[in-house]
Automatic annotation (TrEMBL), chain A:
PROSITE patterns the record matches: HELICASE_ATP_BIND_1, HELICASE_CTER
Residue ranges, compositional bias (Basic and acidic residues): 897-907
PANTHER family found in the cross-reference section: ATP-DEPENDENT HELICASE HRQ1
One Pfam family per UniProt: MZB
Any one of the GO BP annotations: interstrand cross-link repair
Protein name from the UniProt record: DEAD/DEAH box helicase
Domain of life: Archaea
Domain Helicase C-terminal: from-to ranges: 321-479
Keyword hit for Coiled coil: no
From TrEMBL, chain B:
Protein name stated in the entry: YprB ribonuclease H-like domain-containing protein
Gene3D superfamilies membership: 5' to 3' exonuclease, C-terminal subdomain
Lineage summary: Archaea, Methanobacteriati, Methanobacteriota, Stenosarchaea group, Halobacteria
Species: Natronococcus amylolyticus DSM 10524
Domain YprB ribonuclease H-like, first and last residues per copy: 308-480
GO terms of molecular function: nucleotide binding
Amino acid sequence: MDTDDAADEDGTEPTDGSREDVPVTGDELLETFPRYRDEEDVSVLEIPGREASTVPNDEVLRPELAGPLEYDLYAHQAEALAALEHDENICVATSTSSGKTRIYALQIARNVLEARARGERSTAYVLYPTKALSRDQERELNDFFDVLGLDISVRVYDGDTDPGETRRQIREGADVIISNFAGVNTYLHDHDRWARFLSTCDLVVVDESHTYTGVHGMHVAWVIRRLKRVLEYYGADPQFALTSATIGNPGEHSSALIAESVTVVDEDGSPTGPRELVLWNPPARARADGSDGDSATAGGSEDEADNAVVERVPASVEAPKLLSHLCYHDAQTLLFTPSRKLAELSVKRASTHRRDRSRYYANPDRGSEIEPYHAGHSRTKRHGTEHRLKTGALDGVASTNALELGINVGEMDTTVQLGYPGQRQSFWQQIGRAGRGTRRALSVLVAGHRTLDQYVANNPDYLLETDVEDAVVDVDNDAVFARHLLCAADELALKGADAGAFAERERLERAVEMWCRAGRLAGHLETGISYVGPPRPQGSISLYATSGEEYAVELADGVDERHDPEMEPLAEERVLRDFHEGAVRLHEGRQYEVCAVDHDSPRPTVTLRPTDADCYTRTRTDVTVLDAVSEESREIGDFTLHFGRGQVLVYHGTYDRVDVDNGDPKEQGLPTENPPLSIETQLCWLEVPDALERALVERYREFSLEDEDGDGDEDGIAETAHLGYAGGLHAAEHATIGVAPLELMVDKRDLGGLATLSIDSHLERERGENGTTGKGGTSGEAPRNVAAAEATVRQIADGLEHEPKSGWFIYDGIDGGLGFSRAIYENFEAVAERARELIADCDCGRVDGCPACVMDDQCGNDNQPLHREAAVDVLDRLLGNESGEALEADAAESESGSDRRPPLFYS
Amino acid sequence: MTNRDGARLLALPPSAVLGRPTETLADVDTTLEPDAVWLLGPEREARAFARTRQMFDAPAFHPPLETDGEVVSRQPIGTELEIAVVRSLRALRASPADVSSALSDSRSTPIAVVCDDVTTTTRPTALETGLEGAAELAAALPPGRVTTVLTSGVPAGYDELWHLAAETGAIRAVEHEPQLECEPAGDDCVSVRVRGAGPVEGYGGSASLSVLELDETGVTAVDTYERSDFGLEAVAGIGPKTAERLADAEVTTRAELLETPIDKLAGYPGVGRDSAHRMHRHATVLEAGEPRRLTDESLPAESGRPPLCLDIETDGLSPTILWQIGVYDPADDSYRAFVERDDPDDPAPVLEALCDWLFASHPDRALLTWNGWRFDYRHLGAFVARHVPYYVEEWESVPKFDLYDWAVREGHALLPGRTNKLEDVAGALGYEGAETGLDGAQTAAAYQRFLRTGEEFDWGRHEAYCEDDCRALWHVYERLRDAPRATDSSDTSPAEAEGATPSGTTGGEQTGLGDF
């Protein structure tokens, strides 16, 4: 199917009317796309459609509600409404556009009608993840209640709502209040003003609940617990209705969020047409072709390392061409881009593509109404774009994920994704935008360079597996719990009754004791505990960080306000890694340079100014783990896997400036002026069995590192026989972290790892051993910097009386932990399986791998040593694959045993 | 101010000394009348110390500079009392015996030890709060009794009793209400009552000056002030920048400000004519101790029967019961208290009694509070709705006024007094209180203990405290009523009153039970 041929470039006008369903099919796309090259690079998958399953309205709804509805309810809507009728909480996890809003809208209508019949009121608190969605849904709900002929007042109440009288009117008069969790957190302080609304609240809606994971998810879980306390105080006991994209564990995730049991409704009764899914790996880049060496490729992602061994045309260049092409062929197309800048650029590139191929695209104006869409545009402009999409006035839109969540723009013919969005959940949510009713739909995924993209491109079946990632939300982080406890005490006195309901008694008592000793709480659980610290503890909660140490992001003096990045405050951990002085960061597609960081003032800040640099920055990180304590462990074959807590010392000491175009370092080892960071966090670690270690050391003992930078052999390790094996552990560590997002809704940036030949020297020591106690006691004996910590680790290693275990740690990079490494602990085999596939299937052909497999641009050891084969051997054995078994046999005899193992560790 | 019997120790952060005109420090000195000045450590600030010694009549000390060749020095506070000052934890670690011997001196035992390095360390990830310096204190302080340690390492108002194992400094237990009960925990235990003198974070900034009232038993009361409560900055509309500009023009005191003609003042950058007027008026108020009304607005409930002055006592800032509601009726000079003495688990009877009395005997009267919209009315409304719901409508229809809100937030009047606490304002207006020695936090803690233990409770003292607040409120009201209205004084135009809310008022907003 080689179309790289001038004759084909003429193309033909698409023939209208010959198809019923979709303007362009997958095969037609391949046939018509100019200069399409290699069959290997593209797969077309067929996803069958689904018939609608409906239930007559009058079986579910009272006549005054059933009557005005034009269409019957889908089966899942009916099921959800039935569950609500039985006083259950529900989580509806069905596809995009399956009518989830209608479920809670009808429940609100039922509640209001029933209450009014009794001469009472019924209110609902409806919470969305973004303000944009709130406004959109305010209209949708109002329209729907109009259709029903009901006088139900729906109002948005958030940071944009005028203060004063308007707010009072809403609190006192609205039947439905729409807000977000940052708002709820704040408004709980003045709950007495909300008494009318809260005391009649019968339903709390948590829309797009799958977005609440990680740090944000645990804050939301605690805000909900606080809200429930206050609701109970006012005698309200509302039901919860959560709506979610398809995730792996909707029931578990919802229960974790609201601390109650939840009935899951996930049998989707809405119809969909069949869908073709085209996985499009861009062609290899013609090296000489400067036009494809695109200067914006690093804009594709903050984390992208642009020096893949197989250099393909970047997705950021290829995807806009597809957008242009599809629009030309009458397919209304939505392109998803990872940043605002790329949304804007893609529109320009789409039109450039037309001009460059003017012989093919004979009628340049055809299908050329293409607009960008992102949260940086004014509300009016966005509404205009939404409307023109809905009415068909636009042929295409290039949008950030702002259009991924439920804003109503109608249905497209086609979606194109510029890069894999990182998660299947998000992937499905986005492609769900294509497909008009039961008509055939087309979705194209243009793969980027990154690990996950290339994994997906090479393993198309991954997308079709029925599993979707589990959403991880965790309430075990004591730092986050403790901050919300202060707020809870400020809202209503903490009492004995909170034990169990808000937190288990022992945890509650410990936290209360901690804060009483610190002078922040006063009183007794028996009689009531009040908050006595600085006013409004709610204000110090950042929904995106675990500790109070958060940094406000400000623009440098004299910079025009319109450049304001409007960033959420940053957690200290992020500031130290990504926002040190001199860092160049992309935010929503705009480039900023950090010109100052103030760590010491009571209100720490990061100051940015917009920049247009031809480089980005990459931080070098030293990491070590200390005092890890195993809380749980399990065997996987003859490996042992642990979960526990420990101290992680992280030092982002230097950074490199990297060329945007070719990924080459321009300047290296610049100091960040950062202090080191010490976090107490959750971690999991894998211990490799001794016999396997011996076998692999033997097998790869010839491996050595080139001393590239000629700085001598600092660590004295280059010669050791263990280097190949250590490279295997290091590669396996990178890969397991790299693929974790394939199984779990975790953010790789919140994970870190450490491969080590001496796990034991990172564990908490027994009292007395080496004459010291494990934890530093009160006087802070714990090492304060990474060099000292590493020295400690080596010293412990030297003092060990037994041969230590080797393996690797994976830790949550956020103080107190996030539950990510716990989820990895629980799903380790699945993650390891993916890691193995990734490493083994990569076609880079290099022992030390490439950025698409085992290299990691955050690596503190400059991606050395890395050994793909050794990593595959370890993972094979872990997974019980046969090739692993054979290893030890050939190593058994040659066992040297005399090599003293060096205490090497690599992050 | 209150309690003239004991001695007064002024705790002063170096930042409040440097960069402030000498006249401001003189104002601190004359207003607070300290018997000794503690320039806070632990950082060594020799320049600030020199300035402090120069500016204050009372003896001053700065722990990092207390050398004398000794680890610990003794510092007289007033004529009767003495405290021990420790240079640093490090010094203490080096020679703990010096402190032991200083403290066991039988001729005169210091009432407290000052050590600025002592602080709490909170590790939320481990749900632990420890005491920095625990081991050193355990080694140096006598076991089997309670020693008070004063430190700027924790905020003023901090008061916790740490029982430490004498051998190791390990934490045995921490008592959270030493003001109610302060006993040692055995002979193998060093008991340290840690009391704060550091800055307190509030709504508008941080209160960084504190005055510790001392007697032979230790610290009896702690009052906090903001830097801007003194000197020119005490005048509404003068912030640090304006104060600097005025200082350049050699206007450094309120008296000098009043001597500077309006025209001249208005000529300085950033001061317009209106604010010059405002500054003059407020400076006059502060200097004369007379309130001043800024508008023609009548006082709340000024016509007809006077309002009922109301104050509530709770069991904490997040109350579970409003156990005392005091109402002073200026019409016949009678006071009435509704108090729950019998069944503290039931908040309803007190509320019901109040409502019965109010709606039956005084159906047409308005209520008056100090800062009630943020506290008294807020909780009364919520509690009435919850516990006596049949009275909600009547309760909501009662006219309610907040004198603090009217005067300060709405800007109808200027008040003397360095803070907007009722006690300060009433005191500045010549009210002589009952000197119960209580504050809201103490009375709340005491009632909580009664709730928990059923132990004897000093009803008389706590009722006197509530009554005192109600009467103080009426005193302020009367003084405001008698003050001339805006139109009666020549230099005011109504427009100027707009936005007249003084900038320094934030300190009066509630930052803790201690404030009301």
